[in-house]
Amino acid sequence: xxxxxxxxxxxxxxxxxxxxxxxxxxxxxxxxxxxxxxxxxxxxxxxxxxxxxxxxxxxxxxxxxxxxxxxxxxxxxxxxxxxxxxxxxxxxxxxxxxxxxxxxxxxxxx
Length: 110
Prior knowledge:
This protein is an all-beta fold. Helix content is 0%, strand content 46%.
């Protein structure tokens, strides 16, 4: 991923159904330090996990974001993250077409 020149970016990821995880399309960027994940659904839980490929169900170790809440996921600088062969993916516990709103908090070079 590239470096972004703005302090924050937003993205919406839509998960069609449980067991069909979706990866982010634009971030996180190399200079993203945290990802704020907002679960827009009032009933179902959103799951988040670093995976080698999105598309299937996430593991039992995935982070859970309860209905209508948010969490901040500190991911640190690019140099200490997982392999370049991983993506941040999202799944849902139930329901259909649930939007997950993401805010990437980015460090700016001086």
